[in-house]
Specification:
Length: 166
């Protein structure tokens, strides 16, 4: 009889211990999954932040270049305008040659202005597309994150309700 009671007690204790370990293992597994999800989200956020920083820096560098280029074009245009006045006052024999050369320089300057403006328009369009893409990505992230947190909140609530029932 004592042997049966000892074996039964040992069996019950073993079941309790193994059952408890299984519960702890499940908790550890759930914690590991949660940590993995959080790490994944942090990596995604860091990558998104890096992309946004690169975009902002690129846009700032482009705007600086555009301002410098516009200033250089304006300076060159002023020089051309001043030269036009000087050419009008110059010798008739040189006037036609100088005017032709200056007209060619004016055309080249106009071509450079057009190239700059086209590139600026193209870049502006690309930046808008990137900004739109970031906005869509951010909204998607916010929605998913909110759903995940709500799911966790509900799990905590259920866990508490389950623990009160016991």
């Amino acid at each position: 009889m004592n042997l049966i009671i000892s074996i039964a007690t040992t069996g019950i204790l073993t079941a309790i211990i193994l059952g408890g370990c299984g519960s702890d293992s499940k908790k550890h597994l759930e914690n590991a999954k949660e940590n993995l999800n959080e790490s994944g989200q942090e990596i995604k956020e860091a990558a998104k932040d890096t992309r946004e920083e690169v975009i902002i820096k690129s846009e700032e560098e482009w705007n600086k270049f555009k301002i410098e280029s516009d200033s250089l074009i304006d300076e060159t245009q002023k020089q051309i305008d001043e030269l036009k006045l000087k050419i009008e006052k110059s010798d008739r024999s040189q006037r036609e040659k100088l005017k032709a050369r200056l007209d060619k320089l004016q055309q080249e300057l106009n071509a450079q202005k057009k190239i700059l403006d086209q590139h600026y328009d193209k870049l502006d369009k690309n930046m808008q597309q990137v900004a739109d893409s970031i906005a869509v990505t951010n909204e998607s992230f916010k929605r998913e994150f909110k759903q995940d947190v709500e799911r966790l909140k509900e799990s905590v609530k259920i866990l508490w309700q389950d623990s009160e029932k016991k």
